[in-house]
Amino acid sequence: MRELNQPYPKQIGRRVMHDETQKQGVVVVQPDSDATHVYVLFDGASQAIPCHPGSLEYVDQAA
Fold first, then answer.
1. Structural domains of the chain, count
2. Which class for 33: exposed (0-12), middle (13-18), buried (19 or more C-beta within 10 A)?
3. CATH code, domain carrying 40
4. pTM metric for this prediction
5. Is 37:49 a contact under the CB 8 Å cutoff?
6. Burial class (CB in 10 A: 0-12, 13-18, 19+), 4
7. 10-56, pLDDT tens digit by residue?
8. Which residues constitute the domain of residue 39?
């Protein structure tokens, strides 16, 4: 069985809001991500940053 490269594949492309900063962005694919964080490209940013999933609120409906 092949191991997943992404720990949270169903969240990729979803809009999120960080609970502390209130910034919004989109969960993106990050090739070398670990199983404890997702990468978020926040609105207006040029690079995605790792965020703990517990600090994110999904602001859209899951597909």
1. 1
2. middle
3. 2.30.30
4. 0.77
5. no
6. exposed
7. 788 999 999 999 999 999 987 776 678 889 999 999 999 999 889 99
8. 13-58
